[in-house]
Design a protein that fits this description.
This protein is of the alpha/beta class and 209 residues long. It has helices at 10-21, 34-44, 53-59, 72-79, 109-116, 130-133, 154-166, 180-196, and strands at 2-6, 25-29, 49-50, 62-65, 86-89, 121-125, 146-151, 170-173. It has an 8-stranded mixed β-sheet with strand order 3-2-1-4-5-6-7-8, with helices on both faces.
Amino acid sequence: MNIGIIGTGNMGTGMGKCWAKNGHNLMFSYSRSEEKLKAAAATVGSEVSVGTPSEAVAFADIVVLSVAWAALEDALKQAGSLDGKILFTIVNPLLPDMSGLAIGTTTSAAEEIAKLAPKARVVESMPIFAEILHSPSTKFGNEVASVFYCGDDVEAKGIVAGLLRELGTEPIDAGGLKNARFVEPSGMLLVQLAYMQQMGQIGIKLLRR
């Protein structure tokens, strides 16, 4: 599968490393400089290519949006048309100091992205932390973390679920895109516990009976 990643931070490169190991073709885009873009891609693999956001969209079977909330509109503007594309977003509307969310409960980052790219097939998930993705194993002992994903396109959700499994997680279908209003705060809670309360590398597990 061709995966175009918009955003070259720790999350984008962490996910990219997992997918590259599984034989996917990757193109990274959207960085402050060409040098940083190439350096980020090089940490993932020698076969990883780089380009502009619009080139990454044209290249991709699935586009991964992995940018800060503040950069969202600029990144989508540079991406150009996303009509018909699967757009897998991990964007959480965190405030810069991580004290809370910029929006929530009555809308979500995912829903706002869907408004900006109305013909894209938007699926959202809040994967495990970048530190875990870059570690030797994404497991917690013998357990794998549960991650929620949501969207309104059944086929697109299935493809994203497969990519989440490749990250070493248990994907949980959380329903339609509107439920991103609840998925994003769950990600915020983990941020608070991991960083503000210094619990370190943590994840959640959905239990059933």
